Amino acid sequence: MEIRSTTEKDLGVFVDTVFAAFGKHPASPEEDGGGVWWSALEPERGLLAVTEQGRPVGTACAYSFELTLPGGSTVPVAGISCVGVLPTHRRQGILTEMKRRQLADLRERGEIMSVLLASEAVIYRRFGYGPATYTRKLTVPRHRAALTPPRAGQEATGTVELLRLGDCRDLVEQLYDSYRRLQPGAISRPPRWWSRRAGHPPTAPTQRWIALHRDADGTPTGYAPYSLDDSQAMLVDEIISLDDAAYTALARYLLGHDLVTDITFRHFPTGSPLRWQLADFNAGSLTNETDWLWVRLLDVPRALTARGWSADGELVLDVDDPFLGERTRHLLTVRDGRADCTPTDREPDLSLDISDLGSIYLGGTTPSTLVRAGHIRAHHPAAAALADAVFRAEREPHCLHWF
C-alpha cells in the first residue's frame, strides 16, 4: 500500500474514489468546472491510498483556511475533508496510515492546527481531534413568531433590502469576511470557494433570496440567505451580522414573512438573543444539536500563545498525544490577555489528552465539564475553576462554513 500526494492530474480519480467510499455518484460540474462542492479542492493538498496493483482505495485532503481565535487573532489552519476508504478495504489500517501521513505533512508545512467536520463522532478522537464548536436548528411556527418591542432603548434602525444571490454575491462575500474576523471559531471562505461556486449556499450556485441589511447611513451590515419549499416552509441558511441591530432587523424580517408556515434557522448559536426576543419564549423548537468544528493541535505552545485570554493565571498542562506518541508538559502563563507557554517539570494542574485540549481551545467547552466527564484529570480542587476562567472566550465560538 502506498500513500501518495495528489496533483491536478489526479482530480478525477480522487473525486471518483471519494464518492465510491461514501456510496454516492458525483454530479456533473458546470462547463467551467465549477458549481459542485468539490470544485474548490486544492489538488496539491490531497492524498491517495493506492494498492500494489495501482488501484486507488482511500482519500484525504486539506483546504487552506484561516480560523478566528478568542481575542480576535486569525491563524492559518488545514481544513481536513474527503476522508474515506472504499468499503472493500476498510479495517485494514489504511485510514490510520493516511492520517499519520497527513499530520506529518501538516507539521512539515508549519501549520499549528487542523480542523474538520466529523461525519461520525467516534472516528476522529483517536487521531487527536476534539469537538470545539456546536450548532443546532431553531424552528419557529409563523403564527407564533412575533417579537417583543425592545425595552432597553434599542430602537430598530436601517433597512432590509431583498435581492437575488446572483446580484449581490460580491457584497455577501465581503460581509462574510468581515463577520468571520469578529467571530471566534469562524473560518474563512477563500475566494476560490466563491469563484468556483463550491460548498453549500451561499457559496453554491443554488438559488437563494438574500435579505440584506443596511444601517442608517446605508452601509451594508448583514445578510441572510433563505429559500421556501413547496409547503411554504422557510429555511434560513445563516444570519451574518456585524452588530446586534443588523441581526435583530434580519430576524424580524424573516419571522414576519407572509405566506410562510414556519421558519427554520439552520445554524442557531447557543448565545443568540433571538429566543429572548420572541414574545413567546417557547415558540421555537430546538433540534439537531450536534458537534460542528473539531480542532486538532499540532504545535501546542504556538497554538496556546496565538489566542487571546480572558483571565490571568498559571496552569501546568500535562498533554498526552497517543496517536503521535508524544507526551509534553507546558507551563501556561497568562497576563493581560496574552500567554507564554514553556516546557516545565512542575507538577501538573491538569492532565489531558490532546483531543480534550482541542475541545477547550476555542472556549466552547469548559475544562470543568471534561473533568466531570472523566476526560481531564484535575490534580487539585482549584484547577478546574481556574482553567474555566482562563480558557473562557469573550464570545461563544461558532462556525457556519461547511467543507
Structure, described:
This protein is 24% helix and 30% strand. The protein is of the alpha+beta class and 403 residues long. The chain has three domains: 2-111, Gcn5-related N-acetyltransferase (GNAT) (Aminopeptidase, 3-Layer(aba) Sandwich); 135-290, Gcn5-related N-acetyltransferase (GNAT) (Aminopeptidase), CATH 3.40.630; 300-391, Nonspecific Lipid-transfer Protein, Chain A. The strands form three sheets. Strands 7, 8, 9, 10, 11, 12, 13 and 14 form an eight-stranded mixed beta sheet that branches. A seven-stranded mixed beta sheet has the order 1-2-3-4-5-15-6, with helices on both faces. Strand 2 (46-50) and strand 3 form a beta hairpin.
What attributes characterize this protein structure?
Acyl_CoA_acyltransferase; Aminopeptidase; GNAT_dom; 403 residues; 30% strand; globular; acyltransferase; 3 domains; 24% helix; alpha+beta; 7-stranded mixed beta sheet; Nonspecific Lipid-transfer Protein, Chain A; 8-stranded mixed beta sheet
Give the percentage of residues in beta strands: 25-35%
Distance between the termini: 28 Å
Determine Rg (CA atoms, Å): 22 Å
CATH superfamily descriptor of the largest domain:
Gcn5-related N-acetyltransferase (GNAT)
- CATH class value of the largest domain: Alpha Beta
- Could you say which overall geometry the principal axes of the C-alpha atoms support? globular
Biggest sheet architecture: 8 strands, mixed
Give me the count of strands: 20
Question: What is the CATH architecture descriptor of the largest domain?
Answer: 3-Layer(aba) Sandwich
> Low-confidence parts, pLDDT < 50 over ≥5 residues?
none
Number of helical stretches of at least 4 residues: 11
Number of domains: 3
- Could you please say which CATH topology of the largest domain applies here? Aminopeptidase
**Sheet/helix structural class:** alpha+beta
